[in-house]
Amino acid sequence: MLRRLRCTPAHEPPLAILHIDGQLTLRNAAQLRTALLKCLAEQPIAILADVAGLTVEEDLSLTAFMAASRHAAAWPGVPLLVCAPSRDLRAALRRLGADRQLTLCTDLDHGRTVAARRELPAQVRDRFPPAAASVRAARTLVSGACQRWRLAVVVEPARLVTTELVTNAVRHAGTPIELTVTRGRRYLHLAVRDYHQRRARRIGSDGATGPRGRGLLLVEAVSASWGCTLLPDGKVTWASLHLMARSRI
Questions:
Q1: Which end of the chain has fewer CB atoms within 10 angstroms, the N or the C?
Q2: What is the pLDDT of residues 30-63, one digit of tens each?
Q3: What is the mean pLDDT of residues 221-238?
C-alpha cells in the first residue's frame, strides 16, 4: 500500500529542517521539490532534509533532491544536507551522482554538526512599504552593504538589480517588501520578498518596449542567475551577481 508523502518543516534558525516521510515516487517527486524550495524563504544557512521515514519507489525520483540543491546553490547560496540513516538510500543517491551536488549525512544530528561548521555569511535585511520612496531606500541599503564589504565591482549592477526588483514589487505586488542582501563566497545575492503570488516574468525582447518591459531583461543581463520562488503567502524574486565579474552595464 502506498504511504502518502508528507513534508513537515521545523523551525531551527538559522537552519531550515524538513522532515520527510512516506513513499517517494515519480508522481509525487514534484511535491518534495516544492517543499524543499519553500524552505528557502527564510534564507537559512543550510537546509537539512530528514529522510529517516522515507521509502523510495524508484531511484529516479531522488533527482528531486538534486534539482532543489541546484536551486538552493544559485539562491540563496546554501547547501542541502540529506540526513539518511538508511545505507540503501544513501547508496541510491550516490549511484545518481547526487553526492557531487549535495551533502549526505548519517542522521539529523550529524547534519546539524556539519551545518554548524558553516561560516555565517555577511547579510543585511530591511523591510519597506509598497511606496516609490522605497526604491531609493533599498538602493541606499545595497550601496552601503557593498561599501562595507569592499565590493566596488558589483555596486552599480547591484543598484540596478535592486531598482528593478523593488520597483516591480511596488508596482505589481503592492504589499510590504523585504530586501535581503547576502555576501557569499562567489556571489552577492539580492532577494526581494513580497506577499503577492503573481510570478515575476521576463518579457521577451521582441515585446519589451519602454522601461517597464525592460526591467527583468536588465536583471538577466547583469546577473549570473535570477529567478522567482513562489511561497504559500507570496514570493521571493532574487538575483545573484558574480563577485569577480566586471560590470556589463
A1: N
A2: 999 989 988 987 789 999 999 999 999 899 999 9
A3: 89
